[in-house]
Amino acid sequence: MDIITQMRLHQISCTLLFERICWYYPLHYDVISYDCTNMMYHQAIQLYLDGWLIALPPSGSKVPHKLTEDIIQIASLMWRIGTNDDEALHLDVCVEFVPDLVLTYKILSPTQIFDGMAKCLKHLDPMTSTELDFKIDVLDILRRWPMFGASFYKAKCQTEPKLGGKCILAVNRAGVHFLDSDSQKCVLSYPFTEVISTRKILTDTIEKLDFKVGNNRIQKIIQIETNQAGDIVHIIGQYIKVLNSCAKLSS
Asked: Which helix (H) or strand (E) holds 196?
């Protein structure tokens, strides 16, 4: 906040952006403000459109029907948030409301997206629901996805054969997850109860992070290379702090 104070003293205009980092507690829209809901929507929808929240099925496996339904529903809700003019919906426009990997990996074709949205929009009446209602509906869909609320970090791991080098580290309320860098499929996952410690290692050229994971009987260390080691340690610490606080309250 010292930076904000200095900018105010020098009458420099600025924009203060808020970001939710720890997504542990459930979403309660009845007790939070419009601005807070709006913030969470824009944060979550950007991660969705960037493709971070979709885990592709293994090669040769069929895409779950529920996933394609959700993608169509979210696209339709996003359209309704922006406009009530369904006549403006065209094949080349509808693809802007889905992540690029949906088309790249042929999860849905543009025609399937267009037809699905046209059908879905008939049930989204702007006269009975507000823009905020539609944003809440999007959050309610995404919060059921495994990677919802996660923070993502690009990394490299040479100590775990299953990861094979480049990987993505995801941290959310369910724990620490190591994802395949291409398909974003979860390769390894550890709840916070199995994250024994994290240790940041600084060298002259790169930052490394040691994860000690396991239980009382079996433990191992997974080492990754990343330039965001400090951020990762901080967010894991935040989740563990919240977990410990909840455990004390329930005991």
From this structure: strand 195-202
